Amino acid sequence: MPNAYQKMTDAQLDAAIAELERQAADLRALNLKLDMARGKPSPEQTALSKPMLDLLSADSDLSDQGVDADNYGAPDGLPSARALAAELLGVDAANVSVMGSSSLNIMYDCVEHGYVHGIGGERPWCQQGEVKFLCPAPGYDRHFTVTESFGIKNVPVPMREDGPDMDVVREYVEKDATVKGIWCVPKYANPTGITYSDDVVRAFAALKPAAPDFRIFWDNAYVVHTFEGEGDELLNIFDALAEAGAENLVYEFASTAKVTFPSSGMAWVTASPADMAELRRAFAAMRVSPEKISQLAHVRFLKDAAGVAEHMKRHAALVAPRFALVEEKLTAGLGALDCAAWTHPKGGYFVSFEGPEGSAKAVVSLAKELGVTLTPAGAPWPYGNDPRDTNIRIAPTYPTLDELGQALDVFVVAVKLVSARLARSERG
Ligand SMILES: Cc1ncc(COP(=O)(O)O)c(C=O)c1O
User: Fold this and answer.
1) Residue partners of 320: CB distance under 8 A and separation at least 6
2) How far apart are CA 93 and CA 107, in angstroms?
3) Does the pLDDT of residue 219 top 90, yes or no?
4) What is the per-residue pLDDT for 1?
5) Which mutation among 49, 110, 111, 140 tests ligand 1's pocket best, with the greatest number of atoms within 8 A of CB?
């Protein structure tokens, strides 16, 4: 369907471009310096967790169920930390390792394990010639960077409203033994904000991979990050695996990066008993035992899943108005022009925006000129290559509401001007 600019007469279109150029010049004169690029909690959000810092002092008892937090030992983490991590994902604590402050770091370690040592007794990927990972796109750029950094070939898979296109996934995974993994963010996906449907989760659990060393990298980064109402329900992948009679297929990851402090939270991995036994051997060669003082502070602060849910409501109170403002500004500015579409998530950190074909790079660069930094266009695709150049990731959590409002005003003018210029150039 043609958009409003494409429907205009030449004279109307020229007038619209002139008016938008005037608006852009006014915005440029404001010398703004605003950032909507990365999914970071705002300072008010991280402040919510500062009381955690008062819970441990020189006088504190540093033992947790008989384990000393202030010494080596407990390679899978403190018992209470494992219990909390397991409760949040609905899995057995016996299959959980809590370690470090970054889930991405654990994902890297797991890819490295496959690449250097091999999974399930198979030859290491580095000895198998070309190997591939599937990358539902748009997706999380840092996932793709991990596999790219090993020279693993990243293959894009289309994303739909209920998850990755499972016909495409099945075709690759079941027919091509060089496919060793797939990156998934199953709840409030980065950047689309969608949650995989039960059918999609069951289709993942029912995969019959051609490669025995294929694993699903199930990054449940936003499992508790609902900001609207009851939020979305995600079927537990390990329940779906049990239903399908499947084992050794999924590594699941999560962290409190956006519950407490990004880069100073606690992170964990869970998998089948056999996969965990193998991963534990790999981790044991990397470290003596994980950092546990921060784990202790976390469990004393958050306590259990109910404590986390309460804490996340306080985050939601700060995050929801920002997402509402995105919706309001985009609807008011672009809703009637038929040149753009965007997602309406109930949780997570992002809105995924689709402009006209061939517009995204130009919009990001024009917004930059007008003082607003956005995630680089194409970043959510393997190798930064958005084939239609339509997608822009909006990350509204970090700026204040005032800054966000200004940044969105700039964004709307940039989208309109680029769309109008594209309509002009289509006419030659
Ligand atoms: C999908 C996803 N996974 C992982 C991370 C990073 O998590 P961590 O800080 O635990 O490494 C992010 C951060 O933006 C993310 O969006």
Assistant:
1) 227, 228
2) 19
3) yes
4) 86
5) 140
